[in-house]
User: Fold these one by one.
Assistant:
Number 1:
Amino acid sequence: MMTIHQLHKPGATMASPDHGDLTIKIVETEDERFKAMLVRAIVYMHEQLCPYSEEFDLNDHAATQIVGLTATGEPVLTARIRYFNGFAKIERLAIRKEYRGLGYAHRLLSFMLDIGRTKGFSRFYLHAQARLREFYEGYGFRLVGDAFSFSDHDYVEMELSEQLQLVSPSMHIGSTPMVLNRPENNTQLLGPLEHGAFRCAKRIAATERSRG
């Protein structure tokens, strides 16, 4: 398993030994997807009594799924992101009850915002349970529209518009197209197709030299 984005930073408060360290990442395997869905079932269906048909709303295959795992692979948290014209929608943030109070919610949200920024988004939108309004306000989200309810919980619309100078992924079109083929979890590193391209280039160069 590719493990990146260690949540604990130097000097940060560590979780108890029973909880272990945590890795937060984009889902890459069916096992990770199952674990992400399991966390949602525990938090939303069991704890908050959300009906299955409302929790699993047919949008999961159109979203980027996030999962948080301990060093032993225990699923701790999850969320998903969907992308629309001009903004990214943050959804389904969930942390198992026994892992709350350790700062993971802050690190999960920061991770998701960074994913959006990497894709060129500076506008983010979410439906927050009303009781969590102040948490999101701490990140610069503001209320928009009116309050509403679904799955027997009260929600508010919140939006964050940042004034960041982001590098648009479109800059790679016509110049460095292979960057857009990199795995989502490691966009800063060369992807497998790029390594393949280099092997091909070396092979062609070697052929040219042998002919010369």
Number 2:
Amino acid sequence: MSELAGGSQPQLSKHRIEALVDGIFAVAMTLLVIELRIPEQAHHAGETALRGALLQLLPVMISWVIRFFVLANFWIANHRLYSFVRHVDQPLLWLTMLGLSGASLLPFASSVNNQFASLTGQLVYSGVMVLLGVATLLQARYIYRHPELCSHQLTSASYAAVLARGLGLLLIAISAIPLSAVAPGMANLVFLLMLGLRPFGAWIERRTQRTHHAGA
């Protein structure tokens, strides 16, 4: 009742929120595979037609791999951030919900992007990616600025790494939009650059730690 009454900030268990995060990401990852459909005519055709249908699906399969690992990246980011958290207050809860709204939208955005390899389709997909990225950055900022919520504090070096990865992702998502006007259907390949964000973040973290040690 105290939560509904809007009194002092309640301390919410992080475990139920983590369970919700896991469930929504699991459903979103599963829904992505719906795009992998073999055409009806191939069901009653021979081996040659089946191989041809599978080859036609290859671009969609590549797209699925990219999008699956994009979602996996966000789940890992959320898991890492919540590893610092002891309990959750309402602002952090709603920032987490903001991220979950993006995760739940991603299968729809992926479907639009697959069916309409155009600037508008890319705007929809990249827009959801930006929503996910901004939500992750806001969560990290809130956790960093509220150490009282943490079992162990998010250090400035770790926070710098989160910022580097998050801002890098936003840059990648935004750059895919003009690229889609030049090479429709190929713009999502730019998201493969996300593979470099984790080592880049680790390098930023080590560099920040060295700077702090040198200044101590």
Number 3:
Amino acid sequence: MGTRINLVEDEKNLNSVLTSYLEKEGWEVKSFKNGSDAFDEIDDSPDIWILDIMLPGIDGFELLREIRKRDSMIPVIFISARDKDIDRVIGLEMGSDDYLPKPFLPRELVIRVKKILERVHHSGGIISVPPYKIDEARRTVTEEVDENQSKLIELTSMEFDLLLLFISGKGKPFSRDQILDRVWGYDHYGSDRAVDDLVRRLRKKMPHFKIETVYGFGYKSVNI
């Protein structure tokens, strides 16, 4: 089965153009022009969701909330004409993997989708960083509570990628620009606050995985 994308965009012309560009990559695209129709397909489990924030009926934030209730790992890209920091921050806090302000070139969206899918489909082994076990192939993290009990840590796709970056660096400090390049996978235009937001979320979910702030530069893990 090929890559399946759910696109939710209420602007008819933009919806059509984006669908065309995505389909040219050989991807199967199911497009919606309002949040209510997309909500009815919330259990569809595509490979990636692309959500406009401003939608008639149910907005993108509400859709993201429902998607995350069902699966924390399905990548989600927000698109929005408002281009406000608050929308980006709220989206990241709720678990979106990327944010693309309008207007943008359709090709840029294609590139971002490709980069996210490449990371998601990467396979590897089991990495032990006590009390956590990271399964690269399944892209899951479990925490060993005691010898008989473990719990699943629900990370978004981008949070997982950041975790792998810190692990691969073996204590090496990464600048914010390096994190943007390695995790987002493209030249990121805009504030590097996205990095700080992502680090804060990972720290909250994995408090025993120590991430140290390198002031005036970036971050490094002290577990490795």
Number 4:
Amino acid sequence: MSKKAEAKKAEERHCIVTGEVGPKEGLIRFVIGPDGAPVADLGEKLPGRGIWVSASREALETAIRKGLFSKAAREKVEVPEGFAEDVERLLAKRAADALGLARKAGALVLGFEKVLSAIGKGEVAFLVEARDGSEDGSRKVAAALRAHNSGTEKAQPPILRPLWAAEMGLALGRANVVHAALTKGSMKEKVFGDLARLESYGRKERPVHEGLA
């Protein structure tokens, strides 16, 4: 096995729900806290044996319903009420923070016209659209992306819609943000990973309170 293949295999984890093995980016790590409750370790730095669940609300709810945390931890695990919603909020907070960091690093383009300009210059690594943005605006941005990549063998940059406009605006210090583009650079992997994990998990409903906590 090559070193590259070995490194890739080392980054794979086993989901306690599906039984499948896959890249860490597609799963959420949990550890059992001192109080016997699971803790979402989104930064993957907390001490303790990691318990991995596919990054979807359905998978997490299945793990809770079937007592799979207790089985994986080999001890009684008490899952608090509303845990799946708490995990969604944590994922949303982390995704919003990642956008904020990208903005501070000068790697994020905001606004419809500026995003279209970045697409035309071939500077886009991926797009971020607000979940509640207008369908017309989203169609125009997607069409511009397709047109720019038409006739080339390059893969089209992905479009993610994990956050609501108010969440994006709060994270970026503006009223409401609907269209954003991450330009090519070193932050792509981290920002994409945090946003894609939230999108994969799924949003139940629009937050009813201000803030992301």
